[in-house]
């Protein structure tokens, strides 16, 4: 058995190497590549994704899994090798249902679509992106068709980003969550609004960059294994155990965008940097559950980065960067300002109370798109209508509406719900952290994050993708994904800020 496991690991290493090369090409596309390179870059990425897919779905890979299946019963079910075989079997069963030409076509289309999206968003003109998105939607429908019969057409798309999760399961969670969030927003709306005008004035971009670097260095982001660059839409990517990179976006007229983007992406990256080295170049060393991933980015961005203890420590440092802008603004005013609750157009800038409604809107639209209930040409109208229904506001243009997110350009339909699920998981983890590290808030007040990072490393990061999200959350907290802790967190926080 040891020799067969060794062969399986060798095959995985080749597949993962190809995938990481694709990640490098896609990072370069978003950070450095000139617009004219999109078509050829699409061909390059398409070729590599096809090769990775063909290796994973090869007869050799399938035969090894078949031979290992009975032998794996002899292993400890929680051992690295047993879990590796199990995850390989799950992914092999999924990927063998998808033809290689569909994988390569989607990859090539996405590269060109990304460039079209950037131009369309810059011009706030959805029609320039529409034909590319129409093709992507058709391809994603074809992908879903590979999994017939299914309980729901959206299940295969969701399962690509959240293995083991079903559409009905997510809808049930959101159905329980939405009225609670709406009630909280209504309660906040009845109170006097906080003043965040100090945040919206010219802030030197380089100083914004430098302060963000200082913060995530204290968090524990390992610069020997990472770097930060700028991108139109912030993201994190991994090229290997020793190279996990982040990007951020700076808005010269708003001090919060770059900082919270940097903290968010650092949360993703520290997760990747914390995976056990012995899982490197194995499928369990990759991260499949985006709900778990988002729990980390949202924890560091919000539960830490928007907390009062955090700013009691860091606000004097921020004032030293921006004495003219913030020298006469109290910490309490600044803290309330960065936590202001107000329906807004842009998801990534949304406050914690309204954020999940942005996600529910997108889930509803994606399901309608792939099921054929709405067509791509009708998306701007459908988007604006749902924004009015969910948040009571209507975007004035496409850039602030349907074109704001990059995910569809990349073919990532099935992704969005994991953001809200990640919020819920972050709340569950935080309640457990407060039990295991009773003085965690005092440590944050002192600018000390080692215990918090180590807790996440030991409880979550090191396991990579050995466990699916529901099982991982159950192991850590004692229950599956549950909205209650997150709602307790929001209610306590905004009761303090708004005097509910």
Draw up the topology in text.
Elements (H helix, E strand, L loop, with lengths): L1 H30 L6 H19 L2 H14 L7 H16 L4 H24 L6 H16 L9 H7 L5 H23 L15 H15 L8 E3 L5 E5 L2 E6 L7 H18 L16 H15 L3 H14 L1 H4 L4 H8 L13 H19 L8 H13 L25 H20 L3 H6 L4 H10 L9 H9 L5 H16 L2
Helix pairs in contact: 1-2, 1-3, 2-5, 3-4, 5-6, 8-15, 8-21, 9-10, 9-12, 10-11, 11-17, 12-14, 15-16, 15-17, 17-21
Structure description:
The radius of gyration is 22 Å and the shape is globular. The chain folds into 2 domains: 2-125; 167-498, Neurolysin, domain 3 (Orthogonal Bundle). Helices cover 63% and strands 3% of the residues. Strands 1-3-2 form a 3-stranded mixed beta sheet. It is mainly α.
Keyword list:
500 residues, 63% helix, 3-stranded mixed sheet, Neurolysin, domain 3, mainly alpha, 3 strands
In a few lines, what is going on in this structure?
With 500 residues, the chain is mainly alpha-helical. Helix content is 63%, strand content 3%.
What is the count of β-strands? Answer: 3
Work out the helicity level: 55-70%
Q: What summary fits the major beta sheet?
A: 3 strands, mixed
| SSE order, one letter for each helix or strand | HHHHHHHHHEEEHHHHHHHHHHHH
Q: Which range does the strand content fall in?
A: under 5%
Q: What topology, given as strand order, has the largest sheet?
A: 1-3-2
Report the mean per-residue pLDDT as an integer: 96
Low-confidence segments, ≥5 residues, pLDDT <50? none
Shape: globular
Overall CATH class of the largest domain: Mainly Alpha
Q: From the 3D coordinates, which CATH architecture of the largest domain would you assign?
A: Orthogonal Bundle
Q: What is the CATH topology assignment of the largest domain?
A: Neurolysin, domain 3
């Amino acid at each position: 058995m040891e020799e067969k496991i060794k062969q399986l690991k060798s095959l995985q290493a080749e597949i993962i190497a190809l995938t990481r090369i694709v990640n490098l090409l896609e990072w370069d596309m978003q950070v450095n590549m000139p617009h004219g390179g999109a078509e050829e870059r699409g061909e390059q990425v398409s070729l590599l994704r096809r090769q990775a897919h063909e290796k994973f779905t090869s007869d050799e890979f399938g035969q090894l899994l078949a031979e290992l299946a009975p032998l794996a019963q002899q292993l400890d079910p929680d051992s690295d090798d047993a879990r590796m075989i199990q995850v390989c079997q799950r992914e092999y069963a999924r990927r063998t249902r998808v033809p290689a030409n569909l994988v390569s076509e989607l990859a090539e289309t996405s590269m060109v679509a990304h460039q079209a999206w950037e131009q369309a968003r810059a011009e706030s003109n959805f029609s320039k992106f529409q034909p590319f998105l129409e093709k992507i939607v058709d391809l994603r429908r074809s992908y879903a068709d590979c999994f017939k019969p299914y309980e729901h057409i959206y299940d295969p798309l969701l399962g690509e980003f959240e293995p083991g999760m079903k559409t009905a399961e997510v809808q049930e969670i959101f159905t329980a969550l939405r009225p609670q969030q709406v009630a909280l927003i209504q309660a906040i709306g009845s109170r006097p609004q906080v003043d965040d005008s100090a945040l919206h004035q010219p802030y030197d971009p380089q100083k914004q960059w430098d302060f963000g670097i200082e913060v995530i260095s204290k968090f524990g982001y390992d610069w020997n294994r990472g770097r930060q660059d700028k991108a139109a839409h912030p993201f994190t990517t991994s090229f290997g155990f020793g190279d996990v990179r982040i990007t951020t976006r700076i808005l010269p007229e708003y001090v919060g965008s770059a900082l919270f983007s940097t903290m968010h992406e650092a949360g993703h990256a520290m997760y990747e940097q914390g995976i056990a080295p012995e899982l490197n170049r194995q499928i369990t060393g990759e991260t499949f559950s985006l709900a778990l991933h988002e729990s980390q980015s949202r924890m560091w961005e919000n539960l830490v980065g928007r907390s009062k203890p955090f700013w009691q420590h860091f606000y004097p440092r921020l004032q030293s960067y921006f004495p003219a802008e913030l020298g006469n603004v109290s910490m309490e005013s600044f803290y309330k300002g960065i936590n202001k609750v107000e329906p807004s157009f842009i998801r990534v800038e949304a406050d914690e109370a309204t954020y999940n409604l942005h996600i529910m809107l997108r889930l509803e639209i994606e399901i309608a798109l792939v099921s054929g209930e709405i067509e791509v040409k009708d998306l701007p109208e459908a988007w604006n209508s749902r924004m009015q229904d969910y948040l009571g506001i209507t975007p004035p243009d496409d850039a602030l509406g349907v074109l704001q997110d990059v995910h569809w350009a990349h073919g990532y339909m099935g992704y969005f719900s994991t953001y809200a699920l990640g919020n819920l998981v972050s709340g569950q983890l935080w309640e457990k952290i407060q039990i295991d590290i009773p003085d965690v808030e005092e440590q944050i007040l002192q600018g000390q994050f080692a215990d918090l990072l180590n807790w996440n490393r030991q409880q979550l990061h090191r396991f990579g993708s050995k466990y699916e999200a529901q099982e991982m959350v159950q192991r850590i907290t004692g229950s599956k994904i549950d909205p209650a802790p997150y709602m307790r967190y929001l209610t306590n926080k905004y009761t303090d800020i708004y005097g509910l």
